[in-house]
Design a protein that fits this description.
Layout (H helix, E strand, L loop, with lengths): L7 H13 L11 H6 L3 H9 L8 E3 L17 E5 L9 H13 L6 E9 L1 H10 L9 E6 L21 E5 L6 H5 L7 E7 L7 H8 L7 E6 L19 E2 L5 E6 L1 H8 L2 E2 L5 E7 L7 H9 L8 E6 L3 E7 L8 E7 L3 H11 L12 E6 L12 H8 L7 E5 H11 L16 E5 L5 H16 L5 E5 L5 E3 L9
Parallel strand pairs: 1-2, 2-3, 3-4, 4-5, 5-6, 6-7, 7-9, 8-10, 9-11, 11-14, 12-15, 15-16, 16-17, 17-18
Antiparallel strand pairs: 12-13, 13-14, 18-19
Helix pairs in contact: 4-5, 7-8, 8-9, 10-11, 11-12, 12-13
Length: 480
């Protein structure tokens, strides 16, 4: 028995089973069907006779004019793609010109996806001009520019309507009128606006109005380029009495000033949210009740039991996650700032006692991503205590050696009955790396003795050379 004995229907089902119709395939895998059509005449006929069943798509990276493509391929949906790796290609400019020519050609109404990275202003202007008409089949649009100040997109982009658009990502592109386009894109699943220039500012009220209609949205990513994305205090209106719900939203990312996010969240809710990444520009005072409310309403965050504070030269970050550390289920809050004292005070404000999850977390790690050049030994102990104060359920505390010195020194300020005011549930301290500096060793010994006298003894563990943890409580002595 040979494969030729199978019926046409069975063969098509086998082709489909091989993965040609999978919408989630990587772009590089979309050429699989082209292998099938070169096996024999019968297979070629079956493949081209079943374009919808097999979800055939033609990937066009700009190699030669589109008008010279085989006639059989000119009936297929088209994916235009030119990634950042093509910039070093000797014919990259010609390929970009060919792709823009495809947008201007008679075949534009078959274009299903557009992936164009790192365009310069000169080609961006031609590209934008070619996109001033409806693209009836367009479902995916990913575009970015490398110039700092590209011309903004006008209202007529995509003919002002995008009913089939499902995935939209713009990088470095000013598009202040995008809320008008979104009102027609009610099937949108993912929306990403990266590196939004100041000239592309969109008010929170306009963005919220547009989001009310995209009820299928699963992922929202808004990233402003600078802190000048601050809402005008005089134009900020009171939030509506009721909030609209994004019932499918599971991922939210934001970069900008906290006032913008607060204004936006005051108008919306996302009960299924389980992946949140927030980056704030530095501010002296953070007041984020709407962010706290959003986190408290999302069931997906309530299973988190671990936390990590990461300190680097230009930012401080709090990461909350489950023990399994699933990549798509995290809560990350980052504040961009270069001074350690501002980092600690800012994060302490965001993680105030009203933060919904802080009081239930059991593991806390504080680490330095690098040997921070901005580190100061004169940071007031009160700043560490303010940061640690809300973590009332922490049983395990993991510290790097230098941080252990400052944290234990700060905790020693709480003498007598006050020794358990901060981290009252603490049972274990883990120190990494393998060695302990003398200053850290002394501070830890005194802190251990103070907790022992209070009736709340601790155990101290050090990272061993084998990678495990070694209990060194007895080695540290009484500390008296």
């Amino acid at each position: 028995m040979t494969i030729d004995m199978l019926s046409d229907d069975v063969l098509v089902e086998i082709f489909n089973f091989c993965g040609t119709s999978d919408w989630q395939l990587e772009i590089s895998q979309l050429h699989l069907w082209q292998v099938l059509v070169h096996v024999c005449r019968r297979w070629r006929y079956l493949v081209f006779a079943s374009p919808h069943r097999l979800n055939l798509r033609l990937v066009y990276p700009g190699h030669g004019p589109m008008s010279k493509m085989p006639d059989a391929w000119l009936v297929l949906p088209v994916i235009l793609i030119l990634g950042p790796s093509s910039l070093s290609h000797p014919k990259s400019d010609q390929r970009r010109d060919n792709i823009v020519a495809a947008l201007e050609s008679e075949h534009y109404n078959r274009i299903r996806e557009i992936h164009m990275d790192d365009m310069t202003n000169s080609r961006w202007e031609r590209f934008a001009a070619a996109m001033q008409k409806p693209f009836p089949e367009l479902t995916h649009l990913y575009v970015s520019v490398i110039d700092v100040m590209p011309p903004p997109l006008p209202d007529s982009f995509l003919g002002g309507s995008a009913p089939r658009l499902r995935f939209l990502e713009l990088g470095g592109i000013p598009f202040p009128s995008i809320p008008k386009l979104l009102l027609s894109a009610n099937g949108l699943v993912e929306l990403t606006l990266r590196d939004i220039p100041d000239s592309g500012y969109i008010s929170p009220d306009a963005m919220a109005t547009a989001l009310t209609v995209v009820t299928r949205l699963e992922s929202l990513n808004l990233q402003f380029r600078s802190p000048r994305s601050l809402p005008d205090p005089e134009s900020r209106s009171l939030p509506p009495p009721t909030r609209f719900i994004l019932p499918a939203l599971t991922k939210l990312a934001f970069k900008g000033v906290y006032e913008y996010l607060e204004d936006l969240l005051a108008r919306m809710d996302a009960p299924l949210l389980h992946d949140l990444h927030v980056v704030f520009f530095m501010d002296l005072d953070f007041d984020v009740p709407q962010l706290h409310r959003l986190i408290g309403h999302a069931e997906g965050f309530k299973a988190f039991n671990r936390s990590r504070v990461s300190i680097s030269n230009d930012s401080i970050q709090l990461l909350l996650y489950r023990k399994t550390l699933l990549a798509d289920r995290q809560l990350s809050l980052q504040i961009n700032c270069g001074e350690l004292d501002y980092q600690l005070s800012s994060l302490a404000q965001v993680c105030s006692p009203s933060f919904p999850l802080i009081s239930s977390l059991e593991d806390l790690e504080i680490k330095e991503n690098v040997l921070s050049s901005h580190w100061k030994d004169d940071i007031e102990n009160a700043q560490w205590l303010e940061l640690l104060g809300p973590f009332t359920a922490q049983k395990a505390l993991c510290l790097t050696d230098r941080i252990a010195l400052h944290v234990c020194s700060a905790l020693l300020e709480l003498s007598g009955e006050r020794v358990t005011e901060v981290l009252p549930a603490l049972q274990n301290i883990f120190i990494s790396p393998e060695y302990l500096l003398e200053g850290s060793r002394k501070a830890i010994k005194i802190f251990l003795a103070a907790r022992r006298r209070s009736g709340h003894p601790l155990s101290v563990h050090r990272r061993s050379w084998s990678g495990g943890w070694e209990d060194i409580t007895k080695d540290l002595g009484s500390g008296e």
